[in-house]
Amino acid sequence: MFPEITLATPTREDVRRMAEWLNDPEVSTVWYGVGDDGRPLHTTYIPEAILAGGPTEWDHVFSDENRTIFSVYNSDGEHIGEGQLLIEWPLLEARADLLIGRKDLWHHHFGTSALIGMLDHAFGPLGLHRVWVDVPEYNHPGLQMVQHVGFVVEGHLRKTHPKNNEWFDSTVLGLLAEEYPRRRAKLMEAIVI
Length: 193
Known about the structure:
The protein is of the alpha+beta class. It has one domain (5-192): 3-Layer(aba) Sandwich (Aminopeptidase). The chain has helices spanning 12-22, 25-31, 47-52, 55-62, 110-123, 140-149, 180-192, and strands at 5-8, 67-74, 79-88, 93-100, 130-136, 152-163, 166-176. The chain has a 7-stranded mixed sheet with strand order 1-2-3-4-5-7-6, with helices on both faces. Strand 4, helix 5 and strand 5 (130-136) form a beta-alpha-beta unit. The longest helix is centred in the middle third of the chain and has 14 residues, at 110-123. The relative contact order is 0.14.
């Protein structure tokens, strides 16, 4: 059975925790690595800058209709990760990013549960047509997870993710709104058995 999770609007404390998680090289490596300056990379916002900024900066990031950022909480109400949908409204699609920052919870299906919640939101209330992911070649667990949920390989990108001063290829996978109900039902059926 998949663990119970809740997706919620991030708080300042959640962003502070995200910054702490990203300062762990093992965590930042599965997210977006580090930049030339050695600082962890993050998409859509820099945690330290948001924490140092005021309400205008906060609203610019967390109230933008072109992105939905979720904090992931476990059933005990503990913040364990972050998910994002970066939306291209004209195409009715979004790129999904997901990080479980609590390493003690890796490989326990919290990522799968969070991804299902994000897809429910993308294909439900948002009414999107397609969700896609870009998984670096060194993130084998991430690739296995998205394929398990039903994402289909759509292409290969060359040298898109930095890690340890090297560039690595990645795989692009997508899932369509019309495919998702069947894939979701199959996943839920498998956990009941």
